[in-house]
Design goal:
heterodimer, A: 127 residues, alpha+beta, OB fold (Dihydrolipoamide Acetyltransferase, E2P), 6-stranded antiparallel β-sheet, 3-stranded antiparallel β-sheet, globular, B: 358 residues, Elongation Factor Tu (Ef-tu), domain 3, 6-stranded antiparallel barrel, 9 helices
Chain lengths: 127, 358
């Protein structure tokens, strides 16, 4: 299972990465893409949309099912990955390169409440 | 505990992702559902469908039993090995199951029924069978080899298969020793369904694998059948749905004088619902149970998916009678209403896309 050590994770299988510009990039874990199977459609949030931690804010649809994606932290959607929306299979190919959206966090410290790689690895192994 | 087919260990060895399907541990895919789908459309793939049940009907009354029991007319079967698709109805005209019946002799037929309905089917058949022997054949495995190269690869894999089946037309079957080779399937492609003794299932599967037939799971089977416009029991029809509403009027023989269970209800009623296809115009994925808004009222999607062959979303939907191919409708997906066009299935047959935008 590919779980990069430098990322934070949500129990609902999203990953989060804080960049130098203060924005947090969100995607789904390699474990999540594998469980979903062939991904064929992404519904991404509007830029400027305010999200609360734990709130549904995107949908990833594979051939077999639709899955809600939850905001790992609260903030405002600052960017969406249109290239991934145009080629949804890129999420299967590299779930950590094909990010979904970026959040300008209300409070960067909220990231500390997410799981580290070791803790997420346990959850992924059990699900 | 889910039941296991004779090929269970083979699926595990091949890395199949196993899921519970109708009480059976079955492979959903072996890596990529979409690649398996393309493999069947473009070359040859194989499915373990041993969860489905063969039921032999033997005895002098077998023909008369089927006359009464199924909505299609077994009188159409005159050549040994000929197959017929039919619904088996309840007295209210609802579908107990859909099945294939093979004719061998007037006193010997074989039915192939769905896994999830097998127990219910057996009980229903036994209730009407009288002196006809009803023999469930759990000793048989079933492998569907499908795709444009399926027949040639099957012939290369199985000694004697070509001689036995080269002359078979679609919907005909022939014996190869104690195995049955049928030119049938559930994908819209050419190919065979092989019914073989369970103890030879693995050797047969491995021989097919060696000639380049790749394993495909139930996921690809579902997208293939939906592209082919074929109904799935429990989803597109059930005991509350008549075959006339489910797009299966072509399988119901109301013209012949014979009576069959459910006939009087079907004959006396013009259905107010019908089944047609949908092609999603906007981006998204159609799924079962989504609401459809038409000029003549609401309908509902019964099966929806992303079509790997067409790279867009398609569905079968139950729509008000009067809605016609070419009509524009809206489908409610989450909080949005997306545009779709009503079309007449099938969407894809023999590798070719049949439905295009205007």
């Amino acid at each position: 299972m590919n779980i990069p050590a430098d990322l934070k994770y949500a129990q609902s299988h999203e990953w989060a990465r804080l960049a130098d510009d203060g924005l947090v990039t969100i995607g789904i874990s390699d474990h999540a893409q594998e469980a979903l199977g062939d991904i064929v459609f992404l519904e991404l949030p509007q830029v400027g949309h305010k999200v609360k931690a734990g709130e549904e804010c995107a949908v990833v649809e594979s051939v077999k099912a639709a899955s809600d994606i939850y905001a790992p932290i609260s903030g405002e959607v600052a960017a969406v990955n249109q290239a991934a929306a145009d080629a949804p299979e890129s999420v299967n190919q590299d779930a950590y390169a094909a990010w979904l959206f970026k959040i300008k966090p209300d409070n960067v410290a909220d990231l500390d409440g997410l799981l580290d790689a070791a803790a997420y690895a346990k959850i992924a192994a059990e699900s | 505990m889910p039941k296991q087919t004779p090929l269970y260990a083979t699926h595990v060895r091949l890395g199949g992702k196993l899921v519970d399907f109708a009480g059976w541990d079955m492979p959903l895919h072996y890596g990529s559902q979409v690649e398996e789908h393309h493999q069947v459309r473009r070359d040859a793939g194989m499915f373990d469908v041993s969860h489905m049940l063969s039921v032999d009907l033997e005895g002098a009354g077998a023909h008369d039993l089927l006359h009464r029991l199924i909505a299609n007319n077994v009188d159409k079967l005159t050549v040994p090995g000929r197959a017929l698709y039919s619904c088996m109805l309840n007295p209210a005209g609802g579908v107990i199951d859909d099945l294939i019946v093979y004719f061998f002799r007037p006193d010997f037929y074989r039915l192939v029924v769905n896994a999830g309905t097998a127990d219910k089917d057996l009980a229903w058949i036994a209730q009407h069978a009288g002196a006809v022997a009803v023999k469930p054949r759990r000793d048989l495995a079933m492998i569907a080899v499908q795709g444009p190269n399926a027949r040639a690869k099957t012939w290369a894999a199985l000694p004697g298969a070509e001689a036995a089946s080269a002359e078979l037309k679609p919907f005909h079957a022939a014996w190869l020793g104690d195995a049955l080779i049928a030119r049938t399937g559930y994908t819209g492609e050419d190919g065979f369904e092989l019914m073989i003794p369970a103890e030879r299932a693995e050797a047969t599967w491995n021989a097919l694998l060696a000639t380049g037939v790749k394993p495909a799971g139930l996921g690809a089977r579902d997208t293939l059948r939906l592209e082919a416009g074929m109904a799935l029991y429990g989803q597109d029809m059930d005991e509350q749905t008549s075959p006339l509403e489910a797009g299966l009027a072509w399988t119901v023989d109301l013209a012949a004088p014979r009576d069959f269970i459910g006939k009087s209800v079907l004959a006396g009623r013009r259905p107010d619902r019908q089944t047609l296809g949908l092609l999603l115009i906007d981006k998204g994925v159609l799924r079962s149970h989504q609401k459809v808004f038409t000029a003549l009222g609401e309908g509902e999607i019964t099966s929806g998916t992303f079509s790997p062959t067409m790279s867009r979303s398609i569905a079968l939907a139950r729509l008000p009678t009067g809605v016609a191919a070419g009509d524009s409708v809206e489908v409610e997906i989450r909080d949005k209403r997306l545009k779709a066009t009503v079309v007449k299935p099938p969407f894809v047959r023999n590798g070719k896309v049949l439905i295009h935008d205007n």
